[in-house]
Amino acid sequence: MKPRTRYAWWATIAALVTLGSAGAAQAGTPSSQQARIAAAADAVVAAGIPGVVVYSRNGPRTIRIARGSDDLATKRPMTSSDRFRIGSVTKTFTATVVMQLVREGKLALSDTVEQHLPGLVPNGQAITYRELLSHTSGLPDYFSNKRIFAPYAAGHLTYTWSHRAIVRISAADKPLFSPGAKHRMSYSNTGYYILGLTIEKITGHSLATELNRRIFQPLGLRDTVLPSTNTPPGRYSHGYSGDFGKPGQDVSIVSPSILWAAGGIVSTPADVAAFYRGLFQGRLLPLALVHQMQSVQFAVPHARQVVGLGLFGASFPCGPTWGHNGDLPGYTTQAYSSPNGKRQAVITINAGEDAAFTPAQQQALARLTLRAYCG
To answer: Has 88 been annotated as catalytic?
Structure first.
């Protein structure tokens, strides 16, 4: 949910690319590529990460690897079918529904929040949906609001907030800058809660219902859900974090009310890859709208990343990528796809948000990411 892990992991990837240690995309047999990815995944676990799942795809060739444990208490081995909280990767799903409403003529990116949710946020008449999607609204981030985060910091992991309350409390803080200010961008989970509330207002249905009807079912994402319960459904990977006061604490039961439209989806790496592939190949939106999502709205200084609409973009040795990452207490997901969805890598680990990873863990994760995406 927070940007700190996102930029730490990516900065390490960027450093490896700059130094040339990753090399160019390599030719090789499927078995040799699988062995290289497996070795890189083993290195991640050896660096102290509890468990990792890797999904790597290049055209028709797919590799799935799981290493480590999905439950440290029972020492249960991780499997490639384990479900994870995918955190802010959820934002691309939410953004896709917003763009579907744009296609249907029910919403325009130039519409203001006040037009659809009157009185919800101060200065709502100046904040557009394009700015919410691209984190250029100036709205503060609710994950930085001490009042909202206090119950969880005190150990009450199942504390439930209403979605509107989170928006109202967070938006009452001083704006970081004027909406759409030139050369200004600040990652805001609050903005994506507003998007979720807008979807519910326009459709008359819950966000979970709309995600299921518009995305999960059409793409056959059988292991993907926006849950309303504290415990993820089905077999899932337990997540570990020290953000709530206890190092290595199992935080799997954290309330979904603090995640929702900004980070609440539970899924598998294979389903996440199938989603991005379906989106980028025009199965959810006309390609003209997909290309709008992939258009650069902002370049993140010093991070070698660009911001689209519900997407982050970057350049790898084997070509450009679009996707998103998700980092929240206990879980971290990195999802990368080529603009046409033919080359992909999704990596999920059951650790995250512990004030970023150690340098050794960052190096191991970055090398695994480059290996899984580029070969």
So the answer is: yes
Spatial distance between the Cα atoms of 210 and 237, rounded to a whole number of angstroms: 26
DSSP string, 298-362: EEETTTTEEE-SS-EEEEETTEEEEEEEEEETTEEEEEEE-TTSSEEEEEEESB--SSS--HHHH
**CATH number for position 110:** 3.40.710.10
Domain of 230, in residue numbers? 3-374
Q: How confident is the model at residue 243 (pLDDT cuts 50, 70, 90)?
A: confident
Report the 10 Å Cβ neighbour count for 173.
16
Least confident piece of the model among 10-24, 112-126, 347-361: 10-24
Number of structural domains, the chain?
1
Residue 4 above 80 pLDDT? Answer: no
Q: Quick one: which of 84, 68, 8, 2 has its CA closest to 358?
A: 8
Cβ-contact 333, 89 below 8 angstroms: yes
Of the candidates 226, 248, 259, the residue with the CA atom closest to the CA atom of residue 328: 259
Question: Residue 233: CB partners within 8 Å, gap ≥ 6?
Answer: 83, 225, 227, 266
Tell me which of 88, 134, 237, 267 is the catalytic residue.
88
Q: What percentage of the chain has pLDDT greater than the value 90?
A: 83
